[in-house]
Give the backbone structure.
Amino acid sequence: MNEFQLKYGCNPNQKPSRIFMADGSDLPVEILNGRPGYINFLDAFNGYQLVKELKKATGLPAATSFKHVSPAGAAVGLPLTDVEKKIYWVDETIGELSPIACAYARARGADRMSSFGDFISLSDVCDAATAKLIQHEVSDGIVAPGYEPEALEILKSKKKGNYNIIKIDPEYKPEPIERKQVFGVTFEQGRNEFVIDKELLSNVVTENKEIPESAKIDMIIALITLKYTQSNSVCYVKNGQAIGIGAGQQSRIHCTRLAGQKADNWYLRQNPKVLNLPFKEGVGRADRDNAIDLYIGDEYEDILNDWERVFTEKPSVFTVEEKKEWLAGNKDVTIGSDAFFPFGDNIERAYKSGVKYVAQPGGSVRDEQVIETANKHGMAMCFTGMRLFHH
């Protein structure tokens, strides 16, 4: 099959719409279920490139949760702690989680508000444990190099049998030149085949030169995630997963603040006051996520005033002082940026969210100011020398 007709393009008025191979060859995908749309395929192709590169760079299974052509989360398959299982709504009846299931739970769970209605990409064959996790989430579809028979049946049961399931050829290699049209004009460029690995992290420019192996893996995760995130973009990573992604902002400090707030929310969800919120039986995951987001945010009065809708009793106030004290415990976080940090204010904001390790291209006229700010906080920062814009 070298062509697939889509229902419509980005919007219902944009017809006709299709994906096809210009050279007449077969598409590198097989639609096993559903009818994926234009944006679904954009998410699928970007997401699969991300997880394929993560797997190659780290040797670990990888997953990403995409929304509107940027990742809401990305992770590799490290085991989950008991707290992580709880904040990611992992059902204990699933049993032991495989590495690829752990990767998906982490990718989906880091920013559950943004991941609502996501498109999933997996580096490895989707197994039953992963499918059982996906079964309980609101999601538009999935792309993976294959599916175990039980996993395929579980996924086919989603969305009244209309869940989008795509199988992609892991051996597919695109042409070195890529093209797209805007306003009737064709743009052409070489594909971004730049390899991100540990060698890229050798130019450490701060007084602190110590970057442990775990932080190097987190740097690689941040940079590969940024490679497929709409620019400008900044990514916070900890323990093998993105915990805050700021995408598509015109100002880099806005990226850093947005991603930092998401990282803070991820850590606040682990506070005992949040873990022990008295939800009513039968309250769905989306309503629980919305309630938690309000409870830990500046709008906590809204949920406290409406507590009877979702809680069995009124929760105690999560004070600003309690939040600050809890957030002070989030340490050894990594931050990556797709282009240089132009001012030290980005580093100051990152420090507030526990950042100790920084990966960025460098090249700002104020690099010395940025390095000085990192030194003040004892951070280790490397200059990669490579910008990673994605549009």
Observations:
- The chain has a mean pLDDT of 95.
- The domain at 3-168 is CATH 3.40.140.20 (Cytidine Deaminase; domain 2).
